[in-house]
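Notes taken during the Thursday session

The instructor put the following on the board and asked us to keep it in front of us for the whole hour. The protein is Integrase catalytic domain-containing protein. We were told not to look anything up and to reason only from what is written here. First, the residues (552 in total):
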Amino acid sequence: MASRKLRPYFQAHTIVVLITFPVRSVLHSPSQSGRLAKWAIELSEYDLDYRGRTCNKSQVLADFLIELPEDQILKEVRPGIWELHVDGSSSKNGFGVGIRIASPTGEILEQSFRLGFKASNNEAEYEAIIAGMRLAQGLNIEHVQAFCDSQLVTSQFSGEYATKYDRMEAYVKIVKVLALTFKDFTLTRIPRGENVDADTLANLASASAPPKDPTLKRVIPVEFIEFPSIQRGTALAISTRSQIARQAKAIAESLETSPKDMEMIEAAEETEPTHPPMTTPITDAENAPDADNPSLKDHDQDTSVPMETDGEPEYGYDKPWMDQIRAYIVSGELPSNKWAARKVQKQAARYVLLDGNIYRWGFSGPLLTCVEGQEARQVMEEVHSGSCGNHSGGKTLAIKIKRHGHFWPTIVNDCVKFSAKYERCQRHAPKIHQPTEMLSSVSSPYPFMRWAMDIVGPLHASKQKRFLLVLTDYFSKWVEVEAYASIKDAQVESFVWRNIICHLGLPFEIVTDNGSQFISNRFETFFAKWKIRLSKSTPRHPEGNGQAEAMN
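Then, after some discussion, the predicted structure tokens were revealed:
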């Protein structure tokens, strides 16, 4: 069965068969009959090596364990390493050190020491590391990994920095002697932001006033205050969707116009903004605010805080917009201006007054609570970046606010402005890779590929040198210049070899004018040897090398 299942594998390899019976002699016997003859013919196509089972049993098991070891292998258990964070503080109030020791199992030991002598910042750092090492010695710690935010201390301990002063050298010797008392000790520099705990302890020791009795130890317990001592501010009055739906149903039953008709009216008015209102608002005495309810009185007051600016407010919710609608619904009061009155009538058809609060009809959902001023700002900030906010974009933020049951007329524009000015949204917004202006082609795509060469002079003689040989890179505007008393083709060739080829690499092209130094056979042969393109300006304008002339 195995030979039939693994036939390609058996045909490609020699098969070792470990047996305890004389199978080979039986299969190779000339006197075979029946089933043995069929087996012998079927197995004859394979290269079979019959071996007897002797001591190979244990060897096979050993090879199997070596090839497929167990997952749980005994490893050398390394001893736990203690972490030591130290920091020193030197200020006009005093001098102190802070020590924080963390065990491998998570226990933390913190200690502050106030220095009774004047010390510089570096001396305070050394006193901190020495005090921490002595404290670790007292705890019988053998493996310590120390951390310090002073680059001078760590570099002098490792030998990277030399000790120029006797006091620093004495401190380094003490630290190295104490380090030999541990089996394993390392000192590593970390940023100040990762050494906050030790820094706090050092500042606590240096800033605290020295006690009258030096032998007196101070104990400062740190407690936890869970709740504030005063009551928190009143939260926004947010009604649930079920409550608003029940209120809308009750209003629809008391009104002649159904919510479906109001949705159709609202859709028609939004598509045709100049169309006059189809209905007039209907008020009920039951919808008037309850004078005996103080909570309604407080809520009915205008809590908006408009932005006081010289021009228009930045956001639309800063403009009081509910007063005219409330006055028209309650008493039918309209502005004296004809067009302003028509606008108020048209807008009021979309709103309803319930328990002193203005709600807006929705297309298919419950009523939306109308807000303005600071209340609208709080709603927008909470939905955008609150506990459940996801920093949505402008239009998405407006849709989410409507789903939460709030509305004001300029909600979309205000949300777009708010999300566009939010710092995190600007930082993580999609980047615009389109260039701000039209791109222009560059004649040299990479540095030191194309050079412009020219001769400047004669100049005022300085040490008998009157001429300058100038080469300017087209890409980086890098300039190579050298002064000569007189310039011939040999000096130009030597200058290009030393300052360009050997220094900055082999260029692709050099642009020159038609000077005698640049059109000689020797100079052209030199360029042909190094396969450098030599471009010359037009003979009509022999000094028309633009890049070189501009740099000169």
